[in-house]
Predict the 3D structure of the following.
Amino acid sequence: MADGNSARAGGFADTTIHVDVKDYYGKVLKNSTDLKSNACVPPAKPIPAFIRQALKKVHPEVTARYYGCGLVVPECLEGCRILDLGSGSGRDCYMLSQLVGEKGHITGIDMTEEQLDVARTYVDYHAKEFGYKKPNVSFVQGYIEALTEAGLEKSSFDIIISNCVVNLSPDKKRVLAEAYSVLKDGGELYFSDVYSSGRLTEEIKNHKVLWGECLGGALWWKDLLQLAGEVGFSPPRLVTASVLSVDNKELQDILGDYKFVSATYRLFKVPKGNTQPRRVIYNGSITGVEDSFQFDCRYTFKVDNVVEVDGELAAILTQSRFAEDFTFQPPGEPCGAEPKAGIVDPFELVLQLKKQSPGSATGGCCSTQSAACCK
């Protein structure tokens, strides 16, 4: 249990889980080689060249203390204010610092003093490395369940990211509600996390090592959909997913038949309504994805191609930071392939990706299967 010396952010106090997680990431783990499973190791997949270059400029000590499970780099970042939930040693913050530019700003929040000490040590180093007159990165000690209590203003961020951290919280709904509160209208929560194939047993959830390894606190993926809706977010859009292997017999025996994926979702703070499907044209104006922009696992937009999107996505594109990157046509008759919002099972997506050839388009009426239907 948390003792009287537990850290606090306003009225929010440590739970036993918070104490255990801080101890695990502050004292037990000294670098990524100390992890006891593969759950918090990023999957091997191609990383765009401009992101690889940004990562190369991050100080080696910061990178060595990185425990993320995915790559959390949304698009269209120039000048944005971004919050990183559970920023740890600051690797993602310093990478994104370069992508938002000197006029943008990155805030990292973490509850672990040892991790924050590493992150703060290199604030000035990175500003100089990036050629900035002053740092555009700052770090706050606090809880992801209590963002406003930590001093973060409501409706103040364009984007919130998180990398393999939400699963470490005992109160996921509160995390989502706080994120919703500090996002601007039209803002996005873009995060990678670990999800399970079913609701986990109490034995698994009470196992300290499994929780610290990002497995014991994993949400059943269907529960994310419900919680997101309850706090006000648009339905989660699945971007990508990959299977996680534990590769630790002792831990696998406890986990039994449960399976886990690392999945990236995007959630938006936009008004709800009966938005009609729209035909949209991507203008090719987003840095790094000028020719083709994969929004999620259903929709990949090729520059100057007309695509009919579902009503939910139409609402997101028209009311978010992406509005200026698309040309919107009036609603019209469907053209060949009915746009679908739908729910995507991340475990099924993994199987589809194995069968799918690299670079194939998904979703919309003007995919590779019907590219000329809306011309």
Remarks:
- The chain is about 30% helix and 20% strand.
- Residues 1-10, 32-36, 357-375 have pLDDT under 50 and may be disordered.
- The CA atoms of residues 5 and 261 lie 36 Å apart.
